[in-house]
């Protein structure tokens, strides 16, 4: 489509009641990012109230009409998916606006291949709109769904806002006032004063130094966390999400927070903000981070569990129990069931699940592990479920039979569930589709790691409807994480892992060897699972970074990485964690048997190099002594380097002797690499998890998230100004 064009959804296919809109982009650095938002508008072109504004802190409509599904990494960058159940959209909503915003000084013109795609419930793409000239705007309306004569239509908009999401939201009736930026300015002034005191030789924490800086930072956190997109109602920071020292926690990326209430008795001083629920969402229940003290007499007593796993002995028992546990919780916790089905084209409605189902198929009936059915307005959406646990692979013949059964019976989807992680362009099983059939059946895959991720996001960060639902999800999560459940996610690097390691050690691995490609695919699956696990624990967006060329074929990209593995014996990956000052790089060197985790932090734009070095060493006061710190300089040369233990007494050793321009610093930790292909104590997968966890907890969280970055990606800042472009 071109800008301004429109099309009726009925003309694109039959039964377009549920659609998925995907917003995508790529960037040369692989770090470009944006946050999506959706606004429901009435006949006046305004939101009806707070609940009509959906963003990352308010992702799901109570009636199921809108659900932000989050980001999915792809070959050309990340893609944000939004599920719409158009039949559930309230009758007085005439337009649904889909937009995205960038952070701070970042602009959409810096991104490549800015695009929108619309797909039906089977995943088939119905239309595509490319925004070729986004320009210097920080917010962009991609398109809108609107009603015309009782029919839903789509219009390609491509309108940008130089003022960011603040200007866009204001145009549609969302009141925004700039308060968070003011508080952050105060924090910055206090921090500058502390640095000046440190330069003058004052002891840390004396005078107006560290103590007052931390107090101002805390006020900034509370002020930002207490802001929402409407009328000054505070939004609490996500429970369990860590906050780096000095890091703001904005309620909306790209939107200045609304002004909070002032103390009537003394308007000259800013009162402390008490956290309260956001007005953009109903009150949610999350579980406390710290469990209550147990009443058990000793540590050998075990808490009674709703879903016991210790008695499971065979793979068949594990598959049967896991399927029944998952499907029953999906049916009882609406937020969870909707979260797992919306992306597969299911409407919002009454969800029922079944196990031990028998369906005719030739001479002998087939028994899928489960069935999911959703009813809305007398219409049924049905998916067959095939489950594998304990690392067992899906069988192509079995999945093909379920696809044929679903097509004959008019079912909408087949959902496979296993420990494996699906990769773009590399299907787990190959199936045939009969093009002569009018009814389309979609084949979707879900990993146990993603199930655990969604459960943890709901009960630890986003919240569910009541305490009973939170408890049910907690019991499900405990079951999935039990060593005997078989639902631990991707846990085996494959049969090629040991032969490839040996061939690299013996320097006999040649380019084009299919075993190297198999190892690269396993590595990519492992990295994606690490992102799911860490994102669930932090309540943050954690995504692998892709740096492929625009339009690159996923398999061709993996083949190039396999050739690189044959050449240098290393596996490379990069992970972007929202709210951190850089990209976490992970390198597994199969020659030296070491893992390297690192992050590059840009040098500040103002100040003196010695101040930069001293400030960095102060931030890393609690970091491991064996942390490697390297100065990055302009050009291809490398600067001074050393361990943190050696640099603590003399931060000036980080300054180049030749006066070269410092561009940033690289922080690295090294760890021995497990040799086994599995997740045992000595396994490679366990060692990767431990390396990432240690580096994030002991290094990344100590860094200031507000450190300026030239790419301006991943940094949340308040937008300023107003007007449209």
Q: Give the strand order, joined by hyphens, for the main sheet.
A: 17-18-19-20-23-21-22
Instruction: State the assembly state of the protein chains.
Output: single chain
Overall strand count: 23
Using the alpha-carbon principal axes, give the shape: globular
* Structural class based on helices, strands and sheet pairing: alpha+beta
Q: Count of helices?
A: 14
Share in β-strands: 15-25%
User: Largest beta sheet, briefly?
Assistant: 7 strands, antiparallel
Helix content: 25-40%
> End-to-end span in angstroms?
21 Å
Which consecutive residue ranges, at least 5 long each, have pLDDT under 50? 178-184, 202-281, 706-725
Average pLDDT across residues? 80
Rg for CA atoms:
26 Å
Layout of helices and strands:
Blueprint lengths: L5 E3 L9 E9 L8 E7 L11 E2 L11 E9 L2 E9 L9 E7 L10 E8 L5 E6 L8 E10 L2 E11 L3 H7 L8 H20 L10 H16 L89 H18 L1 H8 L8 E6 L14 E7 L2 E9 L8 H14 L3 E6 L23 E6 H15 L4 H15 L15 H10 L7 H25 L3 E3 L9 H15 L1 E8 L5 E7 L4 E9 L6 H11 L8 E6 L4 E6 H4 L14 E11 L11 H15 L27
Parallel strand pairs: 14-15, 15-16
Antiparallel strand pairs: 1-11, 2-6, 2-8, 3-4, 3-7, 5-6, 7-10, 8-9, 10-11, 12-13, 13-14, 17-18, 18-19, 19-20, 20-23, 21-22, 21-23
Helix pairs in contact: 2-3, 4-5, 4-8, 5-7, 7-8, 7-10, 10-11
């Amino acid at each position: 489509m071109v800008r301004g064009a429109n099309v009726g959804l009925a003309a694109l296919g039959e039964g377009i009641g549920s659609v998925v809109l995907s917003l995508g982009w790529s960037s040369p650095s692989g770090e470009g990012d944006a946050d999506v938002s959706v606004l429901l508008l009435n006949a006046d072109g305004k939101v009806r109230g707070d609940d009509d504004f959906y963003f990352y802190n308010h992702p799901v409509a109570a009636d199921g009409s809108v659900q932000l599904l989050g980001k999915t990494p792809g070959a050309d960058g990340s893609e944000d998916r939004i599920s719409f159940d158009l039949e559930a959209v309230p009758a007085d909503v005439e337009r649904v606006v889909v937009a995205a915003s960038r952070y701070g000084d970042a602009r959409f013109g810096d991104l490549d291949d800015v695009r929108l795609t619309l797909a039906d419930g089977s995943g088939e793409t119905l239309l595509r709109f490319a925004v070729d000239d986004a320009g210097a705007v920080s917010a962009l309306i991609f398109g809108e769904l609107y009603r015309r004569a009782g029919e839903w239509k789509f219009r390609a908009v491509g309108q940008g806002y130089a003022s960011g999401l603040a200007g866009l939201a204001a145009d549609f009736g969302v009141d925004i006032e700039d308060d968070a930026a003011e508080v952050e300015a105060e924090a910055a002034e206090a921090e500058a004063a502390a640095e000046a005191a440190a330069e003058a030789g004052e002891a840390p924490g004396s005078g107006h130094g560290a103590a007052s800086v931390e107090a101002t930072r805390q006020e900034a956190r509370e002020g930002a966390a207490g802001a929402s997109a409407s009328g000054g109602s505070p939004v609490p920071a996500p429970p369990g999400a860590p906050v780096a020292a000095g890091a703001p926690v904005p309620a909306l990326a790209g939107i200045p927070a609304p002004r909070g209430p002032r103390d009537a008795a003394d308007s000259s001083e800013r009162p402390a903000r008490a956290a309260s629920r956001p007005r953009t969402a109903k009150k949610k229940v999350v579980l406390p981070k710290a469990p209550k003290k147990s009443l058990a007499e000793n540590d050998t007593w075990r808490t009674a569990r709703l879903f016991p796993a210790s008695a499971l002995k065979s793979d068949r028992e594990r598959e049967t129990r896991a399927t029944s546990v998952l499907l029953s919780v999906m049916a009882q916790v609406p937020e969870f069931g909707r979260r797992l089905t919306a992306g597969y084209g299911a409407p919002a409605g009454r969800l029922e699940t079944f196990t031990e189902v028998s369906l005719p198929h030739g001479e002998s009936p087939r028994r899928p592990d489960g069935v999911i059915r959703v009813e809305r307005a007398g219409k049924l959406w049905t998916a067959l479920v095939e489950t594998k646990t304990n690392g067992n692979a899906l069988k192509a013949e079995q999945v093909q039979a379920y696809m044929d059964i679903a097509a004959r019976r008019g079912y909408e989807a087949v959902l496979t569930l296993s420990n494996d992680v699906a990769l773009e362009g590399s299907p787990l099983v190959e199936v045939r589709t009969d093009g002569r059939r009018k009814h389309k059946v979609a084949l979707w895959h879900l990993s146990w790691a993603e199930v655990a991720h969604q459960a943890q996001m709901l009960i630890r960060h986003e919240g569910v409807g009541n305490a009973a639902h939170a408890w049910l999800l907690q019991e499900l999560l405990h079951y999935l994480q039990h060593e005997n459940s078989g639902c631990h996610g991707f846990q085996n690097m494959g049969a090629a892992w040991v032969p490839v390691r040996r061939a690299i050690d013996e320097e006999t691995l040649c380019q084009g060897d299919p075993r190297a490609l198999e190892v690269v695919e396993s590595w990519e699956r492992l990295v994606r699972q690490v992102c799911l696990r860490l994102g669930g624990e932090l309540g943050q967006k954690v995504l692998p970074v892709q740096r492929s060329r625009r339009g690159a074929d996923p398999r061709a990209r993996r083949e190039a990485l396999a050739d690189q593995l044959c050449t240098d014996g290393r596996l490379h990956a990069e992970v972007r964690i929202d709210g951190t000052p850089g990209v976490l790089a992970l390198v597994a060197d199969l020659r030296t048997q070491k893992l390297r985790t690192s992050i590059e932090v840009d040098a500040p734009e103002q100040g003196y190099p010695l101040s930069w070095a001293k400030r960095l060493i102060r931030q890393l006061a609690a970091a491991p002594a064996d942390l490697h710190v390297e100065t990055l300089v302009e050009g291809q040369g490398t600067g001074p380097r050393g361990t943190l233990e050696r640099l603590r007494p003399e931060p000036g050793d980080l300054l180049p002797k030749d006066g070269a321009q410092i561009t940033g610093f690289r922080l690295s930790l090294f760890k021995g690499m497990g040799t086994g292909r599995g997740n045992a104590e000595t396994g490679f997968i366990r060692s990767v998890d431990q390396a990432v966890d240690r580096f994030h907890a002991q290094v990344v969280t100590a860094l200031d998230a507000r450190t300026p970055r030239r790419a301006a990606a991943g940094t949340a800042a308040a937008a300023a100004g107003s007007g449209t472009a």
